[in-house]
Each structure stands twice: as structure tokens, then as C-alpha cells.
UniProtKB/TrEMBL annotation:
Lineage per the UniProt record: Bacteria, Bacillati, Bacillota, Bacilli, Bacillales
Bias-annotated ranges (Polar residues): 1-15
InterPro entries on file: DivIC (IPR039076), FtsL/DivIC (IPR007060)
Domain of life: Bacteria
Keyword Transmembrane among UniProt keywords: yes
Protein name: Cell-division initiation protein
Residue ranges of the TM segments: 34-54
Keyword presence, Cytoplasm: no
PANTHER family referenced in this protein's UniProt entry, alphabetically: CELL DIVISION PROTEIN DIVIC
Keywords per UniProt: Membrane, Transmembrane, Transmembrane helix
Species annotation: Staphylococcus caprae
Region spans: Disordered: 1-24
């Protein structure tokens, strides 16, 4: 066969050429539509990924803050329990009597309190601690 091929200029070949050109145009349009819709889909996926990352970061920060608040709450609960115990002790006559005897050297009728040389140092340190506060 020779390299030179000539088209016959009849009606059938011209119709076939027009069909091929229409098909090529349709394929171009389809490719453009696929490219546009694919780009839109890709942009939507990227936006969703960015939102996911932002939400994850926000959740991590909230979890850290929640743990901090829980620790703070636990500390306050412990403090409340200690204060309630102290209040209960202050309402207890035996405890008040013990504190009065130990810290203020108070006595009942007929009792004598003796101070030893070692006790003198501890009373001075207690009074100096009270002066600091």
C-alpha cells in the first residue's frame, strides 16, 4: 500500500467524518465536565480534610482543658473534705480540749503543767510561726 491515501468525496464519507467530529466534540465536552466535577469533588474533599484536622486539634485542646479542670475539681473536693473534717473537729469538745492543753497550756482545776527545757524551744518556735502568719 502506498502512503498516499485519498478520501473519496461522496456523501457517506462526509457523513462518517461529521459523525466522528461530533463524537470527538462530545468526548471533549465529557472530559471537560469530568475535569470540572472532579475538581469540585477534590476541593470538597480537601475542605473536609481541613475541617477534620481543625476539629481534631480543637478536641485535643478541649480534652487537655477538661483534664486540667477535673484535676482542679478533685483538688477542691479534697480541700472541702479537709475543711469539713476540721469543722467537725472544732465542734468536738475533746478535740478543743486537746488543742487548748497542747498549744495554750490550759489545765483543769487541780492540774499543774510543768514546762521542760525542751518544751520552751518548741513554744518559742510556735509563737514565732504564729507571728509570721
Amino acid at each position: 500500500m502506498s502512503n498516499k491515501v485519498e478520501n473519496i468525496g461522496n456523501q457517506y464519507t462526509s457523513q462518517e467524518n461529521k459523525k466522528k467530529q461530533r463524537q470527538k466534540m462530545k468526548m471533549r465536552v465529557v472530559r471537560k465536565r469530568i475535569a470540572v466535577f472532579g475538581g469540585i469533588l477534590l476541593a470538597a474533599i480537601l475542605i473536609l480534610i481541613v475541617l477534620l484536622v481543625i476539629q481534631k486539634h480543637s478536641n485535643d485542646q478541649d480534652a487537655v482543658e477538661r483534664k486540667h479542670k477535673e484535676a482542679q475539681f478533685q483538688k477542691q473536693q479534697d480541700e472541702e473534705i479537709a475543711l469539713k473534717e476540721k469543722l467537725n473537729n472544732l465542734n468536738d469538745k475533746d478535740y478543743i480540749e486537746k488543742v487548748a492543753r497542747d498549744d495554750y497550756y490550759l489545765s483543769n482545776k487541780g492540774e499543774v503543767i510543768f514546762r521542760l527545757p525542751g518544751d520552751n524551744k518548741s513554744s518559742k518556735s510556735k509563737s514565732s510561726d504564729d507571728d509570721d502568719n
